[in-house]
Amino acid sequence: MATQTTENLNENVTNTEESSQEKKKPLFQNIDADEAAAEATEIESACMSCFRTGVTRLLLTKIPFFKEVVLMSFKCEFCGFENNEIQSASEIQKKGVHIELEVKTTADLNRKVVRSDYTLVKIPEVELEIPSQSQKGEITTVEGIIDRTIRGLSQDQDKRRIEHPEAAASIDAYIERLQDLKALKAPFNLILEDISGNSFVENPTAPAHDPNCKTTQFMRSKEQDQQLGLYDANAVDETVGDKKVLKEDKHLLKPIPEGEWTLEDLHGEVLQFQTLCPECRSPCETNMKLTKIPHFKEVVIMATVCEVCGNKTNEVKSGGGIEAKGTKFEVRIESKEDLTRDVLKSETCNLVIPELECEVGPSALGGRFTTVEGILVAMKNQIEGNDIMFQDSSDEAFKHRFKDFIQKFDKILALETLATLVLDDPAGNSYVQSLSDTDEPDGKLKVHKYERSYEQNEELGLNDIKTENYEE
């Protein structure tokens, strides 16, 4: 009888654990018409019209191919006042993004544009500048940005023509210049500078390289970090009387006493820290380990598994500093042996397959330690998973071009087509295994060291580094 009771108790505990695991859902769920609507959170809040108590509903969801958002809906049962808002909940990227698009054709006007609240918009030809945080983030087109500007300038023009005729005439003349941009009487440049890194301009020739659009990343300044609400934990001041002093026990990084934690201990230890799942934003843990790649350098391997959505990610970061020169690898893919080469791609490495006119930026795949075949499969999977982001799925010409591109990619993986994989890392922290008995490159591997350009140093944040008298 006691044994049976114990078995029943264990079965109940197991069922409870299974049911609790089934209840776990991602924090931000996709909008899906086939599934039941996600539950909204209801909270009491004051009505801004009659100041009585109303109800605000919050829904955390994801816009497909865009980012996480918080939908807010308020309704007052007393006066009938309603208000609906949307706020961004996407992660702030490590670097800001600077996008320059040369608009030449009608197709360029129809390019989709994703811009966040922190995006600065410029059109130098008409001296147009839309400051950061002056408008809410949106998904629009190049023409849509111009149309919204025209609508904003056209407001109250009738009243302005009566009260301030000179100002109204100047605005009408400027609106004509904007209309000329829409008519493409001359090419113009659209510049987006987003310190949050969450802006994007569609590439109509994807997955091929976009010749009319240049995208670069930049390191944010201290003032820009503070504008985003990012502060250094080591720089938190505490006021004592009339003076501000740095509180030492609040330092994020603290020195370790000499001999307490050796390098050998660090190599053999798997460290864990709390983070958020990059897919569903639920809390999870990341495992981190320091290891050494033979004939190269020390790297940090990080792996994350989310128990809520099942997403698994792994990433590799360089354990050393930036090298004195950039490194460019060219790997000829002709046999199965070539596909098995070990490859370390850092998060600053750019990938190119010239035969396909395919280029993948450094931030697309992150840092990873894999093989040539693993890199190619990862490139293919990412392009396949984001095809709707490139173009409207109803575009038959694009679908045919995209299908043809994937077939060529499959032929390279099946070794039916010869191809070259180029890894260009300005930081010099990437590595490709040589198949020769020595450390020298074999016949199918070319390694080229080069001096970085000013733009590459700027993107890596090296131009602002002070190596002498840095304590001043």
TrEMBL record:
Record key words, sorted: Metal-binding, Repeat, Zinc, Zinc-finger
Annotated region described as Disordered, given as residue ranges: 1-26
Keyword Zinc: yes
Pfam family, one: jr-ZPR1
Biased composition, class Low complexity, residue ranges: 1-18
Domain Zinc finger ZPR1-type: 45-203, 275-434
Highest taxon above the source species: Eukaryota
GO biological process: system development
Entry GO terms, CC: nucleus
SMART domains, per database record: Zpr1
One GO MF term: zinc ion binding
Record has Zinc as a keyword: yes
Family from the record: Belongs to the ZPR1 family.
Protein name: Zinc finger protein ZPR1
Organism of origin: Stomoxys calcitrans
Gene that this sequence comes from: 106083847
